[in-house]
């Protein structure tokens, strides 16, 4: 098994993490968190989404957040958008890159975007035209790739058709999302292998939710199939409001820690990520979902205080 030595982590908490919070998060806090995340070394941050404020009220201050954030040099700001109006707002806010919002199934697409999948992708044409000749980059996404909460398993042919439509638009940078954390490592391997075989020139990345505890294993499956770009969210916040039982993304501190233990660099600063994670976990204890925040780093285990127990001392243990 040959693994990469360096991968890219895109931090998505300011969009995916904050969109799903059941309590309000102030504009001040969003600005502060984005400023702090930029100091953690992430090369790309999904800073917000420009969607209808009624569809996702937590993102209603997207324009103001972007006006107030102090952008560090070298950090790419990405925003999720559903339509041309979203693109216009993103351009005004000077984001570097947009990610088009698309679901693999009609049912999820109708809930999320008020249109079926193929209608939604048809509506991307004017976005691509509008972005042409400007500095803004356009990337794509596919939600519910590994299973839809309304339709179940998604046939491979459906994913291939969507990729074909993206290719016709000239969009080959595609985020594959496990929206409700139902994908398992064997399936992730199989799907990525098929997609890469059919579309070898595409750049696929993985956006994994840890709803069923399979996200890190799925990330490793992705690595084994040549994926080098992963999304994650500090403190494990996240979830699509239009997918029942959706919960947090894989925590940034968990994926960074796991990869670094495996000898794979991420060019991020784990301790700074943990600091931001602790801050968010204190603010949103019910929504945070992170192993490293609870257990600490593997390397710190030997320093952990506690009674030394000799073999045979614990009753009932052999
Ligand atoms: C797609 C729409 C807009 C369709 O919503 P619609 O109602 O069909 O839109 P419309 O085009 O008919 O327009 C209706 C009104 O919305 C306005 N409008 C239209 N667009 C915008 C915009 N961009 N920003 C602000 N306002 C907008 C538009 O101007 C108009 O205003 P009015 O004339 O009535 O005053 C709506 O359904 C929507 O905003 N959906 C977003 C849902 C969402 O953000 N979901 C969560 C993110 S996706 C996700 O979580 C998955 C992902 C990416 O994380 C990966 C994964 O894990 O799976």
Automatic annotation (TrEMBL):
Q: Which GO terms describe its molecular function?
A: lyase activity
Which positions are tagged coiled coil?
none
* EC top class named in words: lyase
For this protein, the record's InterPro entries field holds:
Aldolase_TIM (IPR013785), HMG_CoA_lyase_AS (IPR000138), HMGL (IPR043594), PYR_CT (IPR000891)
Please list the reactions this protein catalyses: (3S)-3-hydroxy-3-methylglutaryl-CoA = acetoacetate + acetyl-CoA
Per UniProt, the keywords (alphabetical) are: Lyase, Metal-binding
What the entry lists under CDD domains is as follows: DRE_TIM_HMGL (cd07938)
Location of the Pyruvate carboxyltransferase domain: 7-274
Q: Which SUPFAM superfamilies match?
A: Aldolase
- Which pathway does it take part in? Metabolic intermediate metabolism; (S)-3-hydroxy-3-methylglutaryl-CoA degradation; acetoacetate from (S)-3-hydroxy-3-methylglutaryl-CoA: step 1/1
**Family from the record:** Belongs to the HMG-CoA lyase family.
Official protein name in the record: hydroxymethylglutaryl-CoA lyase
Organism per entry: Oceanobacillus jeddahense
